[in-house]
Amino acid sequence: MVKDFREEETKQANERKLLEAKIRDQYQFAVTKNKITNTDFLNQAEKMVAEKFLRENAVKNYLFFGGNGENSERQILLFYPEKFTAEMVAKNYEKIVSGIQIILPKGIHYEHRIYLSGVMKLGIKREKLGDIVVKENGAEIIVLNEVADFLESNLLDLTRFKSAKIEKISIFEVEPKIQEFEEISILVSSMRLDNFVSELARTSRTKAIELINGQRVFVNYNMEMKASKRISQDDVITIRGKGKFVVFGLQRQTKNGKFVIEIRKYKG
Asked: Among 43, 55, 125, 258, which residue is least crowded by beta carbons within 10 Å?
């Protein structure tokens, strides 16, 4: 267990260093070449690494963009020269990112994982893909332009999409999805992670610890293997197979010292 924890810590540290190097390269290229540059799509944990780099280096001329409005889970980081304004950079979004619109035959509906696995089968790396905005009759997949034409041409080769209508659209035509939440309350004896996992996964403390040790629990998008980690307001807890939750606030403390916590669970 200790060995697994240390190995995971080392792995995450190495991944952070590699990502920091890539971000630094893009930043330096923007400065030396005096042009707009961008990273691949970053997930939320990677975005936190990027934000740390931006703070430590006092970078001002940058933007995050995901194409799915304020709810973008995956975003690119753009650096731009001082002569540019944010508005000028925004006009270049469609030169960098596109949408792949998939309209399914009537009566067919796929979940997010079906679209993602289909794209991955074509050999596209995950970092080239942004959010997948699932709709009742299909989906809009946000992608870097470098893979957009390939996807438009090859998705129809997959059995699941043979009867679908597929076309590349401007990123400005992608209709952002409004994130919906289910509000719930849980009762915990302390602010330890294992208490939260037990309640959110509706399982015993023992099983909750197994989930944590099994690398299935993430806090603020980083894998967490310390059952004793203290949870705070606004933390995001993700439990693979169970969902994603935001700690919205402390409602009250009971007479016996337990905490009633308001939780928002992501829908969809």
From this structure: 55
Tokens representing residue 135 in the block: 């709709």
pLDDT digits (tens, 9 = 90+) for 101-139: 999 999 999 999 999 999 999 999 999 999 999 998 999
- Of 81, 5, 12, give the one whose Cα is nearest residue 49: 12
CATH number 3.30.1370 is the correct assignment for the domain at 2-92: yes
For position 3, what pLDDT does the model report? 58
Mention the CATH class of domain 95-173. Answer: alpha beta
Mean residue pLDDT across the chain: 92
Res 50: pLDDT: 95
Contact 85, 63 (CB under 8 A): no
Confidence bin at 59 (pLDDT 50/70/90): very high
Q: pLDDT band at residue 164, thresholds of 50, 70 and 90?
A: very high
In CATH, what is the architecture of 181-266? Roll (3.10)
Q: Which is nearest to 76 in space by CA: 85, 88, 63?
A: 63
Cα(196)–Cα(146) distance, integer angstroms: 42
